[in-house]
Amino acid sequence: MPQLPADCLNEIFEYLSDDKFTLHSCILVNRLWCEISVRILWKNVWKYSASSFSFSTLVACLPNESKKLLRENGINISTPTFEFPTFDYASFCKVLPIGEVYYKLGFFLENQQLILSKNFKIGVDAIAQEIIKLFLRQITSLKQLKISKFWQFLSWQTPNTNFVFYPEAKDCLKNLSELHCTSDISSEFFYQLSQLSHNITILNIMIENHIPNGLTDLISAQRCLKCSKIAIYDVLKDITDLLLKKLPDTLTKLNLYGGGDNISLSFITSLINLEELQLEFGYSEWFKNFEILQHTIFPQLQVLKIVNACPKCESLIKFLENNGKNLREIYLCEYSGYCDNSLNLAIANFCPILKKISTGIKNYELETLEIIFDGCQYLESIKIWCGGLFLNDMRALQIVMKYSKNINEIVLDYRNNVRFKILPKELETIFMNNTSRKPFSLVVNNDFDIINSLDKNGENIKIIEKYIKLGMIKRFKVY
């Protein structure tokens, strides 16, 4: 059998990136398969369990001066039997999660009992810094850097970030494209990173208690920031405004969550290139200045997510009037379960090219669902909340199947207890009456384990499987 080219094998093995055991099996086939599999395994080796092989292999890769330093500190980690590592494993890494390095290294050392308890914290830090230095030295261009707190010594710890000052960091971090971190890092770290990394496209940061001065320097230094997810808790309003106003108009995706009276939304008005906007606040009062946005035009906006609480209906309706014509996806108040019929009618009126929607329709508002299908004729996916005041699953399926022939995904999202469960005979009738429609996927979201949900009846599952075989249902999934 002819050998597939390396680039083809690489494409295939990429689909196995989350399947550690299959990739390990591929390593044993031949030299080419081994090389490709190892590269994929080590792209983000930290997402796997803290195996003794990973850490002992990394220690074997350390230069002699690092090994000597560890021995002088009483740290002796057994390495694999080979004298020289088969590959420069660290060079394959594209993701470096500093908190994970500390946590999993500590877990490994504790299980192996390689360090005396009185020297444990110092030992973990010493090994972690040498391993991080190895990565910085061998990785030609790190793509993703994560710095998060980790659990150790019965409390949350902040990792040592002095590595950013190592000479090796200059080349390694030059083309960094993703940064995920918290604000509990020294201002010097952010300032130094602002001198090294100017091409960050994704910035995710959780801000608590204070904002380091260097963070504003880092944001200001970015040339092409595209996506940002920012959580803000317990920070003074003036300081918050100063940071958020530094976000450049190159931003195409913004996810802002946390909340409180300390967040002003005025900075969003300058982000005219936004394609996706997600706001996740705990209380409607925290949207008190959403009125600032209702008159702003975002010509590129395609996705709007108001995840929890909702701004005043009149303000959101005005926003949709100005920005709904380009929206492809809209998700309103998914976690809180709040919905208002005037908002649903506004969606039907102002969002003509919508393809995905998640909203609540009450039992006595069936005609609203029909109006939505009439106004949004390009809809491909709809998530319908079921239970309580909302539609039951049978009525939801009937209306969707009858009035929207373009839908290729129906999601039944069970929110509250369902008084009447859909019977197999009723489900069969719904499908039989719509055999001419295009195939669709049926998804059940039953996070609350509602006992009367469609998926709890074995006969319903058999009917669904029948129509999967007939080609009417493309996919059935329960979450």
From TrEMBL:
**What InterPro entries is this protein classified in?**
F-box-like_dom_sf (IPR036047), F-box_dom (IPR001810), LRR_dom_sf (IPR032675)
Q: Which residues form the F-box domain?
A: 2-45
Q: Name one Pfam family in it.
A: F-box-like
Annotated transmembrane regions: none
User: This chain belongs to which protein, by name?
Assistant: F-box domain-containing protein
Q: Which organism is it from?
A: Rhizophagus clarus
